[in-house]
Amino acid sequence: MLNIDHVSRRFGAVQALDDVTFSMADHGMTGFIGGNGAGKTTTMRIIMGIITADSGGVRWRHAPITPADVRRIGYMPAERGLYPTMPIGKQLAYFARIRGLSRQDAATSTERLLTELSLEHRSKDPVQNLSLGNQQRIQIAAALIGDPACLILDEPFSGLDPIAAETVGEILRSHSERGVPVLFSSHQLDLVERYCDHLVIIADGKIKATGSREGLLATHAGFSYEIGADDLTWLRAERGVIDVVPHGRKVRFTIDALNQDTAEVIAQEVLQRALGHGPVNSFQRWTPSLAEVFRDTIVDRPGEPGFDRRIRRLWRRPGLFQDKP
Amino acid sequence: MTSRGRTEAAPEKDAASDRAETSRPARLRTGPGDDNATGAASGGRKRWKDGIVQTWLVAGRDIDQQLHSRSFLITTLLLLLATVAGVVIAAVLTRPATGSDTTTVVAVAAELPSGTGLADDFTLIEAASANEAVADVRDGEADAAVIPDAAGGGLTIVARTTAPSGLVNALTTTPTVELLEPDTTGTPMTAAFTALGFGAVFMIVIQVCGAGVAQNTVIEKQTRIVEILLAAMPARVLIAGKILGSAVVALLQALLLALVLLGGMAIAGMTASLAAWAPAILWFVVLLITGFVLITSLYAALAALVSRVEEVSSATTPVTMLVMVAYLAPYIVILLGDEGATTLLGYLPVFSTIVMPTLISSGTATSGEAALAWLICLVATVGGILVAARVYRYSLLRTGKKVSFFRALSGSE
Where would I find the H helices in B337-397? Predict the structure, then answer.
């Protein structure tokens, strides 16, 4: 169990992390998402003890984390590489040994891992002689070496083609299924949605949301519906309908209701009205994608600075409400 | 949703910053159930043990890489060939001096003690008197005159510029040497070339081993391997390992060269030269390693400031310049015969690596003076390591724009 407690960190004038608090689940894969400069890498570096927090701390199994604990964590930095001319077997054994394994254990672990990745016959080859896909496997292997108790991976999918990303994803999933919790950051929200069980969303150094993937998606579904029809100009004026947003060839709207049942009743009324205006191509309850949840989470909320500006911008969007000048 | 763990976390609020202040391994504990009371004592020992093991692991990896690098092997081989060639050339050139038949000796035969047997080994000219023998030497008809002392027993050799060493060795009693025209220009010349020779070895060893550290540092930074390393060990262990590794390789290279040089001289029968050179060469190896560590620390620190391999050479230019100046300045200063400047350089760290052994070889400096020069160099080296470790630590994680040396030194963000 890894807890990040009220961690703040400033770089010069930039507040990189502001009271960051979350805990990493004991099982499964936790996706850590946020834009560039949101603080993902800084958080991971603080967990790994590479940089220090100005305040706050990290706990591992309920006690302040120690360098010995950190060595039990497999880590993969962003924009990574390996020693280009060093044979991969030697390289993996080296990473195992600096994390405290004996020579014998390092050799055993290296051999097992290479076999697992079907690279045992390449052990003496330098990294630069491997194909790009195999280089990625070795990269992951450098974090997996020595049976880590936990994995912290900074952008493990960045720069990978879909097939390589799937390879990496499956390797990580197989480790997480064996009981090794994984925390990984990514920009590729589709991959996060596919592989993560839990989510931590960060923006501007602040944690915006944490929880299980299903929980977060359900929370953000709200009472929103999507309708596809030729003429929807009347929708804006409909009673109980708010936040009308075009979404591709459809229009998404939210119903101003206190509970799901009421919302459902109003939705049916809206559908009837739509049918009165002409044929309706589609009508369904809207479930957000992770990308939408993310966008929704990181932008400001009502009552917070900037919210009003965002709403006004939406209202001004051309073609949205043709019945108004 | 965002405040998970907030309520229970208060006591640990400063855990991470505390961990930073005391440097990471200070809080080392083996596990969550570890007893604090015993942990403090055994933690200190374990921290040192871990640090030493990791330093050796880093050093071992760098040594392994260096010994497998083709450029290193080729340069070492070329250096060895150059050394062997140097010994052979020196042996051929010095042969006339140690030989017997070409040295012409003039003496008043009747006055020589019996049993000196000069005529067997040298071309002996008979002179009428001691004065006439000296005149023959001055005129160039003979290389040296052998004149018995008036008091009897001892002998004096009179020569123009240098006493033929073969003659000095051939006499059973150690003779007094009198020079008619003591050489004042030849010795600086020899010393200057000695300095150039030491300087060349110094420069090559530093270029091959020391610059490798700079290269490696940036590769680790560029590939972010440094983050994996820093997650496992403090920055000072990392830099210590890198310096140790390169110093071991440099020492191996220097000792190999010294061994070939001294062994070659022994085989070539240059025993007189061997005796004169051995202390100079041994001091050179000692000073070379110390100066090397200083230069290498600076290389590592400057290289850590940049993020790409392409930028290494421009970032390390100041050190490269220092090495070039240290290589050429002794040669020029000795050639000009500026004693004050030579003495100064003899004690100046890095420069002393070249100047002091040269002075030892020409008999101008004693071992005591060399030891002092070494101590000064050692102090500078310790200072250099401390500065380098600090700069290294603060610049390793800063990628992109080049980090300012002084900002890194002051540790500012």
Answer: 339-347, 352-361, 367-395
Residue B162: is it exposed, middle or buried by C-beta count within 10 angstroms (0-12/13-18/19+)?
middle
Of B1, B14, B227, the CB nearest to A55: B14
Cβ neighbour number for residue B185 with a 10 Å cutoff = 8
ipTM of the complex: 0.77
Domain extent at residue B161: 100-179
Residues of chain A positioned with their CB less than 8 A from the CB of B32:
60-63
Q: How far is the alpha carbon of A60 from chain B, nearest alpha carbon, in Å?
A: 8
Q: Residue B69: which H helix or E strand, with range?
A: none
- Shared domain for B114 and B218, answered yes or no, is no
Of the residues B131, B162, B179, which one is the last residue of a structural domain? Answer: B179
pLDDT, tens digit (0-9, with 9 covering 90-100), for B300-334? 999 999 888 888 889 999 999 999 999 888 888 88
Residue of A nearest to B62 (CA): A86
What's the average model confidence in pLDDT over B117-135? 75
> Using a CB-CB distance cutoff of 8 angstroms, which residues of chain A are in contact with residue B29?
63, 66, 68
pLDDT (tens digit per residue) in B331-371: 888 888 888 888 899 999 999 999 999 888 887 888 899 99
Task: Tell me the β-bridge partners of B123.
Answer: B104
**Global pTM value:** 0.72
Examine the domain organization and report whether A208 and A303 are in the same domain. Answer: no
Same domain, A206 and A292: no
Cα–Cα distances (Å) from B399 to A54, B228, B387, in that order, read: 21, 15, 20
Amino acid of residue A29: M
Neighbouring-strand partners of residue A150: A73
Domain assignment present for A321: no
Letter for the amino acid at B342? T
Question: Which structural domain, as residue segments, surrounds residue A305?
Answer: 218-315
